[in-house]
Amino acid sequence: MTSSPDEQLREATDAAFDSVAKAVEAKYHQREEQKTKQYQEEREEWERRMAETRRKFETERHKFEQNMRMKREQQELAQIEQQMDKQRQKHCREKREQPQR
Length: 101
What we know:
It is built from one helix and no strands. About 90% of the residues lie in helices and about 0% in strands. The longest helix has about 90 residues, at about 5-95. With about 100 residues, it is mostly helical. The model has no long low-confidence stretch (mean pLDDT about 95).
């Protein structure tokens, strides 16, 4: 069955519109994929930076805690040395004060 020229024109126009619509939709999906990929890359970069920052923070915190522990140990040692000096001085004083036989 042959179509009239108007029907042929309408079919050709519909086909052209369908073709353009598919091209526009494909371009839209391509842009969405690019945006998604860019977002993913930015997210991965952000996560990498956060991990790096976290590592630096943990390293600095560890150094700080180690430093504080060393200071505390030095203070404890200084107190022990002071106590030992006091005991030594007391012992020497007692020895001097003892009557010699």
